[in-house]
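Render this sequence as a predicted structure.
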Amino acid sequence: MTIELDFSKLRGQDILDMAIAIEDEATLYYEQLADWVGDDKAEVADFFNRMAGWEKRHHDQLVVQRERLFPDAPKSHAEKVSWAVEAPDYDAVPNDVTLKQAFDIAMDAETRAHDFYAGALEYAADEKVAELFEGLRKAEADHQRMLREEMAKLVD
């Protein structure tokens, strides 16, 4: 369950802080899933670890963008909130998860993140904020594309 926000009240630095926190959470979620499936399902664990790596790279790119655009702006402490935008439905993950199911879990998370940013874009109060949301939306769409390409190689 994601937090309800009034996106029209957010500033550019708030959005980037929120996005950084969301990507940090996504990294953690994928790492947890990799640990959960463990050595018994090495191929699935490797897949979740690769997803964690993608999220970490996205996080790092956002940190650089935040520092470039708003070098003097104080942090909004977005990392202190659980955003759960890309959180998997842990109850829906079976103990004997297959690689295909792992893909579906990741695609669902990436789709929710895309929809979150697309919805936020509708409420952007200024052009800079709108550009940030659009960039985040596109990045999540790119994650979906990378997922499809990755899974085409791995799943029959």
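Summary. Residues 42-69 form the longest helix (28 residues). The radius of gyration is 16 Å.
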